[in-house]
Amino acid sequence: MSDPAFPASSAHAPRFHARFQSFEETADGSAGPGRLAALRAELARRGIGGYVVPRADAHQNEYVAPGEERLAWLTGFTGSAGLLIVLPEVAALFVDGRYTLQAAAQVDTGAFTVVPLAETSPERWLEANLPVGLSLGFDPWRTTLDGRDRFARAVANAKGVLVSVAEDPVARLWTDRPEAPRAPLRLLDAALAGEETPSKLARVREALGKDRLDGALISDPHATAWLFNVRGGDVAHTPLPLAWSLVPAEGRPQLFLSPAKLSHEVRAVLSDVADVRHEDDLEAALTDFAAGRTVRLDQATAPVHLAEVVERAGGKVAKGADPVSALKARKNAAEIAGMRAAHLRDGVALTRFLHWFDGAAASGTLTEIDAVEALETFRRETGQLTDVSFPTISGAGPNGAIVHYRVTRATNRTLQPGELFLLDSGAQYPDGTTDVTRTLAVGTPTADMRAHFTLVLKGHIALSRALFPKGTTGAQLDTLARQFLWAAGLDFEHGTGHGVGAGLSVHEGPARISKLGHVALEEGMILSNEPGYYRTGAYGIRIENLILVEPRAIAGAEKSFFGFETLTLAPIDRRLIDTDLLTAEETAWMDAYHARVAREVGPALDGDEQAWLAAATAPLKS
Fold first, then answer.
1. What angle do the packed helices 368-380 and 333-362 form, to 10 degrees?
2. pLDDT tens-digit readout, 79-129
């Protein structure tokens, strides 16, 4: 066994440390009261009383380029979600439960008031705090149609005035703002895409025809990447090109992006299926197209500015989901094959890590950061890792009870005997995207730990084994994962599952398994199955596999039924399972799953790893 802190091949591990800076180290030391005062002065110069600063780019991406981190530049808060409302006498920073502590540590609380979203929404806060008659400005490039409507209602209730501010005042002050990314586009191999762009365009046009639309502005870069079979590198964790596309019900589509991203080969291929234009041409092209036409704009990602362009041109905005979203969610055979291959590769890397982890954790020196670095090293050894699909959640003991915990140097904890360790991670490979959570025993778990883990496992198995008729929504299935926790008076506050892209975003709509999941699940959709339980100050438990919706034949069935294929391949910690709480059917499912893991993952392991896997996947009653 090599040094317990890192796997043998982790010579590159030290370079990962930059990801784990403390709150104070990541905050911009110049952010804070000075920049806030400068913004207020700029607003006063323009005759605007207040302003909304979202943590967003023009596409509403989950991960944004450095030059789009306006909220961090202004306040010092570096979380992935947040919104600031600046009024003459108060500046309120709204954050969710993941970031309440971080925001308070990073910002000057004398200048910024941190407001947890659990206590109030920005709209309710505005109704209570916006002075009568005050004008509130918003950025029409970084505010969605739905967002504008919510602000409009709140401002009207407060008897204020909502103003669309064309010139971004933050950008005017941020003189050393990083340039927009220009990562090169690459063509997706046809064997991975499974469908050529002309066929995809035909299906989009069919959807437009059904809705009697003249065209659609595609504002979500995930949708453009899927539609034109390209990938990029403009943001972290997701292989996206920042681009727009305009798809008419008849005629050639137009693709808008920086020409610096295009090689001669890529431009030639794209020019066969679309008019490839400079991103600066978007407004003029949309103006020309919209006159007298009805144009679909995605209510979740399209900026208000482009809706204003359509309306000024004499067109009509049809607000709703873009037609690509539903098509992209239903993976074709090639995409499914790629996801299976990615999950097998990832399962081998994760199993190798789990074998290593058992020895490293026993040393008493392993930290949360060590575990993150080691797991990424095993994934890099596959030779195909392009990025992690999201920042790894690595929580020991009480840190595991923080649902979206992100380890920093300041919070880094050494794993202690008798604790649980929660590891939620994922990878991006050329052929697929993974997301997997395992909860691991460090030493001997308590009876409560085993009981709670088994209740979570029972819910996970119930969802995995579910059979459901066509038309069933995620909200209808959500209860299956919660029923055993509910029977014990317990619950978890996050959704049970989210959609996952095929070599794209680890968080993909429109379907999800949650109380709010009202989109029907369809064949080819891939979702997560991740029930959990969190005892504050003690431990967290989550078990997550990705699952594929597939048809199921049932003798005597009078309608079409679906079930799930589990894609994730990695052992579930047998030490945490109280077998007395499992039914015979649940035990059989668990044994069959572990037998499959051993059968598919085992051949890629060495002798010691195979012996460890044999023990980790042995039948529960053995």
1. 140
2. 889 999 999 999 999 998 778 878 898 899 999 999 999 899 999 999 999
Contacting residues for 544 by C-beta, under 8 A, at least 6 apart: 424, 435, 436, 437, 438, 528, 529, 530, 568
Residue 539 DSSP SS3: strand
Residue 153: Cβ within 10 Å count: 14
Q: What is the pTM of this model?
A: 0.93
72 phi/psi in degrees, rounded to 5: -65, -40
What amino acid is encoded at 530 in this protein? E
Phi, psi of 580 (to 5 degrees): -65, -20
Query: In angstroms, rounded to a whole number, what is the distance separating the alpha carbons of residues 46 and 119?
Result: 32
Model confidence pLDDT, tens digit, residues 148-165: 999 999 999 999 999 999
Output the six-digit token pair for 607.
């002798």
Residue among 347, 393, 372, 276 at smallest CA distance from 594: 347
Residue 39 to residue 51: CA distance in whole angstroms:
9
| Cα separation, 512 vs 496, whole angstroms | 8
Q: What pLDDT is attached to residue 556?
A: 94
Torsion of CA 362, 368, 373, 379, to 10 degrees: 80
Q: Is the Cβ–Cβ distance between 300 and 60 less than 8 Å?
A: yes
One-letter amino acid of 532: G
Sequence-ordered list of residues with C-beta below 8 angstroms from that of 337, at least 6 positions apart, any chain = none
Single-letter code of the amino acid located at 37:
A
CA dihedral 26, 32, 35, 39 (to 10 degrees): 120
Sign of CA dihedral 274, 275, 277, 281: negative
Residue 383, classed as helix, strand or coil, is coil
Contact 571, 605 (CB under 8 A): no
Contacts of 226 (CB under 8 A, 6+ apart): 200, 324, 327, 328, 504
Task: Give the 3-state secondary structure of residue 200.
Answer: helix
Residue type, 300: A
Report the pLDDT value the prediction gives residue 3, as an integer from 0 to 100. 37
* 459 CB-side CA count, 13 A: 32
What is the pLDDT at residue 133?
A: 97
* The residue to which tokens 């209740």 are assigned: 455
Ranges of residues in the chain with a pLDDT under 70 are 1-29
φ, ψ dihedrals at 74, nearest 5°: -80, -45
